[in-house]
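Page 42, continued from yesterday. The earlier attempt failed because a stray header line got pasted into the input along with the sequence. Redoing it now with the clean sequence only.
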Amino acid sequence: MIVRVEGEEYGTAAELAAVLGPDVTPATIRRWAERAGLPAYRDGRTVRYPL
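This time it went through. Structure tokens are written below.
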């Protein structure tokens, strides 16, 4: 489920990978976010990344 926090949309790595296609895995999303220094939104144990 994509959520909106302070005007930004966030999704889990699995949700974003599903939108981007079969060549992209959740691990790829996590690596991209880490390398780019993107802020992750933590909701309990769930980590969401910006779209």
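Notes: The helical segments are 13-20, 26-36.
Reminder to self: strip header lines before submitting.
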